User: Fold these one by one.
Assistant:
Number 1:
Amino acid sequence: MSKRKSDKISDAYRASKNIYDDVLTQDSLLSKAYIRFFWSGTDDNEIARRVLSYIPSDFSGELLDVPVGTAVFTENKWQALSCAKITCLDYSVDMLNQAKARLCDCNHVTFVQGDVGNLQYKNEIFDIVMSMNGFHAFPDKRKAFRETERVLKKGGTFIACFYIKGKSKRTDWLVRNILSKKGWFTPPFPTEEQLLRILHKLYAEVEYHVDGSIVYFKCKK
Ligand SMILES: C[S@@+](CC[C@H](N)C(=O)[O-])C[C@H]1O[C@@H](n2cnc3c(N)ncnc32)[C@H](O)[C@@H]1O
């Protein structure tokens, strides 16, 4: 990832670290109004719940959570999966520190600063790779798709949710004119058709849903 792009992303997430959880979980009236107006009411809490439901409650293998962010949606699930080995990776040290504070009692969870486009792991070591709200932030999506697939075991599961282009003019406007300019999102963004082509090329099985401008899916390698 180029230094200019990585600085912009790190700065954006450092600046938003105190409001991030509130906006995504719709804790205030203002954040509820923002989600209703710009995201057609698509509820990030509900999407996160559906994505996490793909992971069995007795899962005991190796899981990579990239990017962990502040762990606002994953805290309870990761705490409960005490027999699993969970690696939480993020590029932003500020976000990673908040995740660490949330999960500091969990010996089965480790925290790593890194770039999804250049993962520091050998091939095929994770049973599950999960990427929640990550791909719309990642600057090099081609590398991110390649790397997440590379580190996944054969027969393993890739789970993700993120923004796709072309579903709502209002959301696309927000993403293009505000979120991308601030550095929270990084173009280019795939359309549903482009994404499906990528997933079917990389994975043997694809289970796929769209809610507003957000896609969530589970793929088997
Ligand atoms: C919208 S947040 C999502 C975090 C969390 N999964 C959630 O759902 O709340 C996007 C995250 O992607 C991280 N990020 C951006 N580019 C990255 C990269 N190249 N490698 C790893 N993480 C990256 C940012 O630091 C930020 O924490």
Number 2:
Amino acid sequence: MAASKRVALVTGGTRGIGRAVTERLAASGIRVAAAYARDVDAAEQVREVCQQNGGTVTLHRGDLGDPASCGTLVDNVLEQHGSLDYLVNNAGMVIEQHYGDITADDWHRHLSVNLSSAFFLTQVALTHMTEQRFGRIVNIGSVTGLMGSPVQIPYGAAKAGLIGLTRSTARAVARKGITVNCVIPGSFDTQLAQELTYTNRELITSMIPLGRWGRPEELAHAVVFLLDDLASYITGAVLTVDGGMSMGG
Ligand SMILES: NC(=O)c1ccc[n+]([C@@H]2O[C@H](COP(=O)([O-])OP(=O)(O)OC[C@H]3O[C@@H](n4cnc5c(N)ncnc54)[C@H](OP(=O)(O)O)[C@@H]3O)[C@@H](O)[C@H]2O)c1
């Protein structure tokens, strides 16, 4: 199938980094199913912008912290578009908390939205991708999963888990025409970053060798690179897009 006829599911594809991925894919003719949870205005806006530029975007609302919603989402995408070729597991959330303030619900919520949703979506998507012997899956991690954060404990655990999920899934489907990779953002100026309670922006900037925060389109570029037909020999890779932050020092 020509790359431009393909269908992408981008979770959290309506704001921030996911929106940049949606716009970039839609601009190249790929039909995009953009999933989101609550912000209807943001969702309508990205659909409109993409349509004005000749792209096709369908919107899918649901809480991906619920495994049943993950199955329903993939079914809806297949029903509306007839195919699913690219899965970008990007939806994420973080609430900054100190150790003693984290409840069992906080722990489970961070794991279900940031990690389990990627597993459940992948599990359902693989049925279709295996049948067609083609698929590209990109999981969006976080530098917190590599470097840790004293106020993002469950989030850091979930994002580190995504690396293990990426590599194990990559091995499981390696002979089926499906690649699975992980892109790790550093600091990007999105709503998620703006709502962080304890993080000190200046301190973060001082930790970035390139000396600035990233732009969502710079992250989208890495995702699109991994979705490309010629990325067929890349699987199980973990690609940091963080201005050098995770090099440490
Ligand atoms: N920004 C950064 O500096 C940074 C750094 C490292 C990693 N990341 C990762 O990059 C990804 C995108 O982050 P972002 O900064 O672009 O975040 P964002 O601007 O807050 O956007 C988050 C997107 O995810 C959706 N979402 C959140 N919870 C959901 C749920 N339970 N079910 C379905 N959709 C849900 C949101 O939908 P609604 O609009 O409806 O809420 C929104 O579309 C996340 O995985 C994040 O962890 C970001």
